[in-house]
Amino acid sequence: PDLAFPGAADLVGSFADLAVAKGVRRLVLLSGRGEEGARQAEVRVQASGAEWTIVRCAFFNQNFSETFVDAVRYGTLAMPGGDTAEPFLDADDIADVVVASLLDDRHIGRLHELTGPRLLTLTDVATTLSAAIGRDVTFVPMTTQAYAADISQQGFPGEVADHIADVIALALDGRNAFLTDDVEQVLGRPARDFADYANDAAAAGAWDLPVAATATA
């Protein structure tokens, strides 16, 4: 699920080598910022013989309407992180950059580091989500160990839970608290703001509470 996981670089490298052997000419790798494991996967793609582009990405906006959807829906965003900031990034911007990288020769051999247009703490995220949804969402910081234990109870095997918690904590520890303009450089338009994402997702019903079933006679 993430290039920072053990063994991911070898899997990516094997896939890239096979793709080139089968005649694939160009590869675009979705990578992560500040992750040593991701860097190893980048090297493997760069060494594959393909025309390559690396797309390093900040923490996705859509995690809050997919991975953490129930946490937001019920008003308690409990996850690793604190007062550090992150330039949360919209997945639609990533998709547009990847398409451009596949279709335009100008992106061959380039590393695009994508961020959203501003830095937000998780408290800022909760405030923005509250405004979009119309209900209070509160950020509750957790230790990495506590978060791993929590998601383990939700069904993730212990080792996988530990890795997921480590990846989230790594991404949100402040190492990536700076902006780039790479989205605008590639697409000719600014990156999408988190508030716009939150408003659109709320309007689409991403965090609607389930309607209670009513008994019928």
* Arithmetic mean of pLDDT: 93
**Whole-Å distance between the termini?**
47 Å
**Gyration radius, rounded:** 19 Å
Low-pLDDT ranges: none
Quick one: how many beta strands? 7
Q: Give the structural class.
A: alpha/beta
Spell the H/E element sequence.
HEHEHEEHEEHEHHHH
Helix content: 40-55%
How many H/I helices? 9
In order across it, which strands form the biggest sheet?
1-2-5
Shape: globular
The main sheet comes to: 3 strands, parallel
Hey, roughly how much beta strand do the residues contain? Answer: 15-25%
Describe this structure in words.
With 217 residues, the chain is α/β, with parallel strands linked by helices. It has nine helices and seven strands. A three-stranded parallel sheet has the order 1-2-5, with helices on both faces. A two-stranded parallel ribbon has the order 3-7. Strands 4-6 form a two-stranded antiparallel sheet. 36% of the residues are buried.
